Amino acid sequence: LASGTLSDKIGRKKTLFVSGLLAVLFMILFLYSKSTFSMFLSLCLIGLSIFASGPVLLALVHDLKTDMPTFLNSIYMTINFGVTSSTVFLMGFIGDHYGLTVTYQTAIGLALCALPLTFFLASEKRAL
């Protein structure tokens, strides 16, 4: 809920890294939770930390200097929708065929692999 403001203060890369790291930690907490309350709480925290990256990524897209910002925004939204839809389908497939524990472990592994990629994002505004 405050990721946009936080990214303005500490930077977009750091905010994306922190929200990704928190998502991984909350996923691990969910995977090893025993009580219904801790599972519910960790799921809520996973949702908050994962959705925190949305406004920051959108701000990164808007930081790009371009003559066609609306087109660039629509490309981002299209890719975001496509990747999210594909991921939901893939995780459902893995869950059906290998079980939910393997699915959560796979999600944690993929999220850990994605964390270092935040450091490859551009640090300054650049022209397309």
Describe the protein in words.
- The chain has 128 residues and is mostly helical.
- The protein is 78% helix and 0% strand.
- The chain has 6 helices and no strands.
- It has helices at residues 3-10, 12-31, 36-51, 53-63, 69-98, 100-114.
- It is globular and about 50 Å long.
- The mean pLDDT is 90.
Q: Topology, please?
A:
Layout lengths: L2 H8 L1 H20 L4 H16 L1 H11 L5 H30 L1 H15 L14
Helix pairs in contact: 1-2, 2-3, 2-4, 2-6, 5-6
Q: What distance separates the N and C termini? A: 30 Å
Number of strands: 0
Please compute the radius of gyration using only Cα atoms: 16 Å
Strand content: under 5%
What is the approximate shape? Answer: globular
Short synopsis of the structure:
By secondary structure, the chain is mainly α.
Q: What would the keywords be for this entry?
A:
128 residues; mainly alpha; 6 helices; 78% helix; globular
